[in-house]
Amino acid sequence: MSLLNVNNLQVHFPIRGGFFRRVVDQVRAVDGVSFELEPGETYGLVGESGCGKTTTGRAIIGLNKATGGEVLFNGDNLANMNGHDRRKHIRDIQMIFQDPYSSLNGRKNVLNIIAEPLRNFERLSPKEELTRVQNMIERVGLSPESIYKYPHQFSGGQRQRIGIARALMLNPKLIIADEPVSALDVSVQAQVLNFMQEIQKDFGLTYLFISHDLGVIKHICDRIGIMYKGRFVEEGTAEDVYTNPQHLYTKRLIAAIPEMDPAKRFEKMELRNKINTAYRTEYDSYFDKDGRMFDLKPLTPTHSVAVQQGGM
Amino acid sequence: MAETVLEIENLRTSFNIKGNYYAAVDGVSLSVHKNEVVAIVGESGCGKSALALSIIGLHNAKTTKLEGQVNLKGQNLLNLPVEKLNKIRGKDLGMIFQDPMTALNPLATIGRQIAEPMDYHMKLSSAAKKKRVLELLGQVGIKDANRIYKQYPHELSGGMRQRVVIAIALACNPVMLIADEPTTALDVTIQAQIMDLMKELQRITDSGIILITHDLGVVAEMANRVAVMYAGEFVEIADVNTLFSNPLHPYTRSLLSSIPSNMTDKEELHVIEGIVPSIQKLDREGCRFAPRIPWISEDAHEDKPTLHEVEPGHFVRCTCYKEFHFPEERVEDENYVTT
């Protein structure tokens, strides 16, 4: 059975206006997204800003309310639960946030930051709590005395480790990592990515990895879903998506990755121009008359693309 | 070799921290030629932005001390009084900022903002000015120039705003442009568009460009020459093809192998040990990268590392590159004894 099954998830935000600030329209931030996560895999959600990838992640953990659809975690639907019931399930899902500078409370020391999930879910004596925190801090590679320090005393990479330690504290099954390395320098990014892969093995974690960086996604993810305007454009294994992209938008996204070979830079520019031209001429075959994406259509067992039913 | 437009000589930018001055840019020399893009690449805290701000004189004059020379058109910009500097900035020396959200004035129309440097530096009639603004908007790839002319920054997307920022920098035909992380705040597809636009513009203008970035992908796409910066110094300078095909300095090599590129697949990325030293604690005598490659013997480093020209145009600092290898390659080293 899959660990997480997201079924036709919708998150709409109301636009209010007019007399009495009535709801005049909806922003369809997430508009019918479905995917599954198998235990132990890393699933990447990719897209540009505003495509709804973060909202999807937040709706799964409950930071945004789902307007419709199902979020089945181990078979239980989290989307329509009330807070009280949800609490019993939610400790198995944790989140790592993008910005290690703003996601840690600057007035708390590391001990209090990392112990917070424990205090929420477990009744432990201060001594037990301290041991658990100390073990974890060692596990994430920080020195034992750092538990009495404050976030501003750490570098960006170390702060992200504190964020990861907090997420691991309750031995979760699923971790939603929302752009965990976007705010970091390349060498620090490498450190955090390696570390995330290492603890995935050790703790048997499943990742939902949200990012706009296609290089990072390719490196770390087994399967990838590409999002655009709140819907899935293409879904498949990393191999499927990178070597055989089918949708025009996916092609454009992949062509946008900077070319690491300086000799090929104008070739790449040509390719991008070609895709942009295709955007003008072939737009209708990829988007319906409202500019909305079609539903996903399976191409191979692992690879599906949002194209018109009945042909490309 | 094309004509040199900007010459930086032994520039040292020091910040005052509790009464002492610490150099963030520590003796940097670089010349930029006409129609050339020189990329300065490094991680946060290496001094690349301090370098850019010192060139254009936007540093905080009260807490910053500048030494050395920045020569543009035969004048040392560092010695000029502000009034004279203002005649050069925005005219001969343009700047493209990182975040187009904050670089633009939210209260002025796009047309007015692009015309502003022309008001200051050129004597143009209103009609000629408007014509020039529309022409610039066209140059930076904005199709509906007449409409955009009257709009405000909040009405435009991030990519459009960055195009406007570029148009402002180009307004007075600068001989030298400084682009400080011009694509960092943008989405991938927009980044690709801006990179292509800048490549296109480089074909039609003659300006030399200093491109400051942390992204080696952007460097590979845009630069002609690259200077890699670490702890306030250039550690390697080379032609872009050479830098990517034959990187020599340990820092350059480490940086390149820590990128999750298309080549690596699920393997471990290289991690540079330790952290970037703070400018207060930096050991300025020896090789500044030595603490981060402790497995390389101390004898490999020079006493006071200088840039060595290993082939024409390819400079590497310190001698440690000759003996550098990644830790996982240790096994192949005959002299290495397992402990």
Keywords summarizing the entry:
heterodimer, A: 312 residues, alpha/beta, 8-stranded mixed β-sheet, 4-stranded antiparallel β-sheet, B: 339 residues, 11 helices, 24% strand, globular
String of helices and strands of chain A: EEEHEEHEHHHEHEHEEHHHHEE
Record the strand order, biggest sheet of chain B: 6-7-8-3-9-10-12-11
Helix content of chain B: 25-40%
| CA radius of gyration of chain B | 22 Å
Low-confidence stretches of chain B: none
Q: CA-to-CA gap between the ends of chain A?
A: 32 Å
Describe the main β-sheet of chain A briefly.
8 strands, mixed
Structural class of chain B: alpha/beta
Strand content of chain A: 15-25%
**SSE order of chain B in H/E notation?**
EEEHEEHEHHHHHEHEHEEHHEE
The helix count of chain A comes to: 11
Shape of chain B: globular
> Of all protein chain pairs, which has the greatest interface, and how many residues does each chain bring to it?
A-B, 40 and 40 residues
Strand order of the largest sheet of chain A: 6-7-8-3-9-10-12-11
Q: Would you kindly provide a written description of the structure presented here, covering whatever features stand out?
A:
The complex is a heterodimer of chains A (312) and B (339). With 312 residues, chain A is α/β, with parallel strands linked by helices. Chain A has 11 helices and 12 strands. In chain A, the strands form 2 sheets. An 8-stranded mixed sheet of chain A has the order 6-7-8-3-9-10-12-11, sandwiched between helices. In chain A, strands 2-1-4-5 form a 4-stranded antiparallel sheet. In chain A, helix 3 (110-121) packs across helix 4 (126-139), helix 5 runs parallel beside helix 6 and helix 9 packs antiparallel against helix 10. The two termini of chain A are 32 Å apart. Helix content of chain B is 30%, strand content 24%. Chain B has 11 helices and 12 strands. Chain B has helices spanning 48-56, 82-88, 100-103, 110-121, 126-139, 145-150, 158-170, 188-204, 216-222, 240-245, 250-257, and strands spanning 4-17, 20-33, 37-41, 64-72, 75-76, 93-96, 176-180, 208-213, 225-230, 233-239, 307-311, 314-317. In chain B, the strands form 2 sheets. Chain B has an 8-stranded mixed sheet, with helices on both faces. A 4-stranded antiparallel sheet of chain B has the order 2-1-4-5. The mean pLDDT of chain B is 89. Classes of the chains: A alpha/beta (312), B alpha/beta (339). The A-B interface holds A 48-49, 155, 157, 185-191, 193-194, 197, 212-216, 218-220, 242, 252-253, 255-263, 265-266, 268-269, 272-273 and B 43-44, 187-193, 195-196, 199, 214-218, 220-223, 240-241, 244, 254-255, 258-262, 264-266, 268-272, 275.
